[in-house]
Every structure is written in C-alpha cells, then in structure tokens.
C-alpha cells in the first residue's frame, strides 16, 4: 500500500505486509474536487480544490497525534490500473482494520461536540454511503470530525456510539470491536440495505471485507455483482439467513411473480433480522448450473420451503419461503413473490407437516425466462404393471424429454399442432396392436404435483 507522508504531503512506499508503519486513515465522502494519485506529484498546484484542503487538514491532525504516515483512498490508489484498484478494494477492510486510528470527516456537520444531536448526525451524507459501512466497522479506533475538523465524538464513547447504532442499526458489540462474522448474513446485509453508491457494482464490492470475501471486480456487470457476492458467500457459509429476504423492495421479474433464491439487491434485506438454527438435518448445499441444490423440507404441495433460520426474537420457530415449481424440470424451482416476507412455523412440527425433497432453486431469474416457449408442462406418466396390462412403453417423442426415473415427460407443444408428447406402447402378445397416445396439456393448477390435466385422444395404429 502507498501512504502519505504527513509532514511533506508526498506519497511514500509502496509498503508490503509487515513493513507497513503505523498510519492514520481517512474515512470521508467524495466531492467533485477530489485529488487523485497523479495530482500528488505537484500537490501544491491544487491548493484551490476542496480535496487538497481535506488532505491537508487530515495530515495536520494525524501529525499532531504522532503519525508520520496517513492513507487516503483518493490519492493512495492508482485508479488508472485495474489490477491495483481490484487489489485495493479487496484489501480495503483489512487496511482500515489495521490502521492505528481512523478519522471520519463529516463535512456537512456544523455543530460542535456539546451540541451534536442524533438529528444532526442523521442528516450527514457519511451515514448513507456504501463504502463508509466498512469504514465504520473495521477500525478499532474511529474519531468523528465536523466540517471544521473539530472532534465531535468517537465510537468508543457510549453515548455517541448509541447514536451511531440508532442511525446505522449496526449492533453495539460490532461497533465496539466484536467480529462482524458473529452476526448473521441477513443482519449484515440489512446494514447496507439503505446505503447507496455511485456505481451499482460498488454496493457489492464495498461489502467484500464485511463477509470475508475476495473476488475480481467486473465493472459493467451491474446487478450481477451482488449475485456474485452472494454466490461467493455460499461457498464458505451454510447460513440460511441469506435466503430470508423480502421481495417488497424489488421489482418482479418477467411479470409472472418468479424470483431467484438470491436477492437482487441489498435493499431486499431492509427488515431482515434472522439468526441461523441447527437441527433440521440439511445436507450441504451446492451451487450448480441448474441453481442451488438443497435436500430441503417442503410442504406436501412443494409451495413452501423451510430454512435453517428463525426470526431473532422468536425461539422455537423456523422460517419458510414460498417456492414455485418450474416447468424446466421436475425438481426445478424458483422463489415465489407471494408472500413477499418469509413466514415461520414451529420447529417441532416440521417433520409432521413436511417432507424432505431434493430441489434445485434458481439463483436468479431473467426477464425472458418465461416467454411462451419456456412455459412447458410436466406430465406424470403412469402405466399398469405388465402382468396386468401386457403393455410396456417402448418409444416416445421427443426422445430427450422423458425422465424415466421420475415417470415425467416434458410436454412442450410441437410446431403447428397443440400436442405435448407422443407415447408408443407395445404388448407382449403379437396379436395385440401397438398403441399410440397423444398427450395434450393446458397448464397445471397451482401446487399440483405434475399431474396431466387432459388426455385429449387415444388411437390405435397399424403395427
């Protein structure tokens, strides 16, 4: 990492690991007059910019506190290098955590220490930005300053810390230094749910350190960054609270009420306050090309799936979320929009009212996922035992659409005719004719277990 010499305002380093000297670090919100790394070559030429005066006041304070070095994100990272930017963002939480002191500049706060109230702090832009969340949590020592660089409080002061907790909802213990990994995933996500970043991707990237994740930055991926973050979290965590989010704060995909199992944004965790529980006998989940694989407890109609978590204030309960069977496979599901919030049932009733089902739940749903060509039904095909009927299923069309292990066939309409599938049955007796069965499906009722609604006609063909 590069550092600023607080005496000369010149850049020093780079420093590596154990060679990094003690340093102060700045937490602030950006304006249009920030300096960059290239400006530091002739820093005095930029003394007309507010960004210069911010760095100067930061260095003066750090030097008065005995720190020869300081770190400021605007000038200590070469943002023209994508590799350096990626390394810096993946290291940022650690850099704030390892600092000797962090100074938070509340540039829109005009009150002094004695007169600063909760209402004054709530109006500060610093508490609304995505990047400042990790800058609040990571440092052990965090001091806040008003617009004139006069100290107004620190997070180790009980009264001031209480106001910060009220504004941010970050737990008091976390503010005082307990590891955020002791807090459930959904709770940590809720801390970011009201925060904003200039670029969509940055809301995900600003959370990497909070979840102990490293991943490459792909600016331009938009909402996919938040999905990638959740997928990376799932590779190392079995905390089901990541699935306990609300659809109230997002827009339905495809207009048909289908959602992925993963939240489209942090805003979906706004009211999430769930904690993990153990004892439902869930095996490890797995990320697959079909979605997230779970051997889950579902109700008999497969419209609700239980999670290994509960509301924090409700002992003895288990969260459930609504799911919908997809027509892409007998075990394929999405999340349903109704109800938007997780529900809950008594944990001691789960085995009585549910069954364990192998499911693949999509991680996300694309807007074109449910165009007409994708809306295919699954029909349950049952034949009488050979000793009774003498008939056996020998051929079917289309050949790739029969899942013999589940007795299910994909009934996608053929071109020009409204026929879902053709089955050919042979009899053991050479004197009995071959039977061809054409299946027509006009959709399935909600919650049905893949039962054909209409067999339109059956005819006998020449052998």
UniProtKB/TrEMBL annotation:
Residues 224-247 form the DUF8212 domain. It comes from Dactylonectria macrodidyma. Transmembrane segments: none annotated. It holds the Pfam family HET. This is Heterokaryon incompatibility protein-domain-containing protein. Residues 23-112 form the Heterokaryon incompatibility domain.
């Amino acid at each position: 990492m590069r550092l600023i010499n607080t005496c000369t305002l010149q850049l020093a380093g780079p420093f590596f690991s154990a060679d990094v000297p003690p340093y102060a670090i700045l937490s602030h919100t950006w304006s249009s007059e920030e300096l960059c790394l290239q400006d530091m070559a002739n820093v005095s030429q930029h003394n007309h910019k507010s960004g210069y005066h911010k760095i100067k006041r930061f260095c003066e304070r750090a030097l008065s506190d005995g720190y020869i070095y300081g770190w400021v994100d605007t000038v200590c990272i070469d943002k023209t290098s994508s590799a350096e930017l990626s390394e810096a963002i993946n290291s940022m939480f650690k850099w704030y955590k390892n600092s000797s002191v962090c100074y938070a500049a509340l540039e829109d706060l005009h009150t002094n220490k004695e007169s600063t109230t909760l209402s004054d702090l709530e109006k500060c832009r610093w508490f609304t930005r995505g990047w400042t969340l990790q800058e609040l949590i990571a440092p052990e020592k965090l001091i806040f300053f008003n617009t004139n660089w006069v100290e107004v409080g620190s997070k180790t002061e009980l009264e001031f810390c209480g106001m910060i907790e009220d504004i941010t909802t970050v737990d008091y213990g976390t503010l005082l230094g307990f590891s955020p990994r002791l807090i459930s995933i959904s709770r940590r996500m809720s801390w970011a749910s009201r925060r904003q970043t200039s670029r969509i991707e940055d809301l995900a990237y600003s959370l990497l350190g909070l979840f102990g994740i490293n991943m490459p930055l792909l600016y331009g991926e938009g909402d996919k960054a938040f999905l990638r973050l959740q997928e990376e979290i799932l590779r190392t965590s079995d905390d089901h609270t990541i699935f306990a989010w609300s659809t109230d704060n997002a827009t339905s995909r495809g207009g048909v009420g289908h959602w992925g199992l993963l939240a489209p944004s942090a805003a979906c965790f706004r009211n999430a306050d769930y904690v993990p529980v153990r004892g439902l006998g869930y095996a490890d989940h797995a990320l697959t090309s079909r979605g997230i694989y779970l051997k889950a407890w579902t109700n008999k109609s497969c419209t609700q799936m239980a999670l290994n978590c509960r509301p924090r204030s409700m002992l003895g309960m288990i969260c459930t979320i609504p799911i919908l069977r997809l027509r892409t496979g007998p075990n394929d599901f999405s999340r349903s929009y109704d109800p938007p919030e997780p529900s809950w049932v008594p944990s001691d009733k789960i085995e009585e009212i549910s069954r364990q089902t192998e499911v693949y739940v999509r991680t996300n749903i694309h807007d074109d996922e449910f165009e007409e060509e994708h809306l295919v039904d699954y029909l349950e095909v049952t034949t009488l035992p050979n000793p009774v009927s003498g008939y056996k299923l020998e051929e079917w069309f289309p050949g790739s659409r029969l899942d013999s292990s589940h007795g299910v066939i994909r009934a996608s309409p053929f071109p020009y005719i409204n026929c879902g599938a053709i089955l050919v049955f042979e009899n053991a007796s050479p004197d009995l004719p071959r039977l061809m069965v054409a299946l027509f499906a006009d959709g399935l009722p909600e919650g049905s277990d893949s039962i054909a609604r209409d067999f339109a006609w059956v005819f006998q063909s020449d052998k």
